[in-house]
Design a protein that fits this description.
alpha+beta; Arc Repressor Mutant, subunit A; 3-stranded antiparallel beta sheet; two-stranded antiparallel sheet; 4 helices; flat
């Protein structure tokens, strides 16, 4: 019987040490009420692209964030860690740190599923 290959995945010791990043295909705008609007330019490939052009179909995804989502996404700059964002949001929203962590993790996951957010995992230095 053949043995299955094992896949090695990196271990993230502190999930809040990751850095959220806005992908290049995402455009961010703010309306007069201060809400962030995200627009993902998704281009289909192959025959799907030809059919979309012929039918005039727009594959662009649009998302309007509420107050909390807007406060989160405004801090996404490719340098600020989730830990820093959680601290700032907990202070601004006057919520407990654990509750804010749960909201940030859930929101991060949802935006990643929509391809509107990516994460940079910092390299860890070995401890001697």
């Amino acid at each position: 019987m053949a043995r299955a290959a094992t896949v090695t995945r990196p271990t993230i010791r502190d999930p809040f040490a990751v850095i959220p990043l806005k992908p290049d295909a995402v455009e961010m705008k703010t309306d007069s009420a201060g809400h962030v609007h995200l627009r993902l330019h998704a281009e289909p490939k192959g025959i799907g692209a030809r059919v979309a052009r012929w039918l005039g179909y727009d594959y662009t995804r649009k998302l309007e964030l509420d107050d909390m989502g807007s406060a989160f996404y405004r801090q996404v700059d490719g340098a600020t860690t989730l830990d820093t964002i959680v601290n700032a949001m907990a202070e601004t929203l006057t919520m407990s740190r654990p509750d804010t962590e749960k909201l940030v993790v859930l929101f991060t996951k949802k935006l990643m599923l929509l391809n509107m957010l990516a994460l940079i995992v910092p390299e860890e230095t070995p401890h001697d």
